[in-house]
Amino acid sequence: MLTDPLPAGPLPADLLPADHRAGAFRRLDPRPYARARVLLFPHGGGSASYYRPWSSAAPWDVEFVAVQYPGREDRYSEPVPPDMQGLVTLLAADLPLDGPSVPTILFGHSMGAIVAYEIARHLCAAGDPPMRLVVSGHPAPAMTRPGIVHRGSDAELVEELRRTDATHLSILDDDPLIKAFLPIIRSDYRLSETYRMEPGERLTVPVTVLYGDRDSEISVSEAEGWRETTLAECDFQAFPGGHFYLDEHRDAVIALLTSRARIAASKAANPWPSMP
Known about the structure:
Shape: globular
Organism: Nonomuraea soli
Number of helices: 7
Strand order of the largest sheet: 1-3-2-4-5-6-7
Protein name: Pyochelin biosynthetic protein PchC
Family: Belongs to the thioesterase family.
Order of helices and strands: EEHEHEHEHHEHEH
Pfam family, one: Thioesterase
């Protein structure tokens, strides 16, 4: 779950403009003439800053907006909700985003895949569905693996992090830093391990499923289970690598998201804004 080496403490205020600190969504690199938007949901233990390079790499016509969960960086003082539905309710309260309404797709990796899926369900139920859901590195919601890691000791939690093929493992040997991280990591494990998909209507939007071909956290059958979440098309793409294949294939994933966002924009009924 852990790939983000940033400390769990608050982010210095000067790193985020004042009008970007409110709520859950961060325009880290605004695109005022964007024709489409991608909402990026971080993995467990991650934060909006993980997606800063993604936002910077986005083209002028596609805006990447990162989601900031409670309990980290500039939301450090806010408690993490006790369950996934609580988190989704909290995030959904900040939708729709301020500014022009443009076609939007959702992307989430690992725990973020489930958060993005539940947000998609919320938007569909509200009559304002996204144009596409892109999920990465997580079994289909109905096949989510239960677990008790969040109930273990700090030492057991650290050992679980070592067991995965997470990058930045040096953080696990930095005692003060990992102690600052552990409460957030434990909370995110709790959200993931206690999640159970509630019955409801299938999505009506296309779903794209990405995963690493050596990822022990998701099997091919668990990836294919996402077909059952939607009445629309569902397609798949495997990348070489493990659970954190994103680190090696970031540019390819950004290109995929940009392409899907532009396709979504081309299908939208509203005219695109023009670049000056």
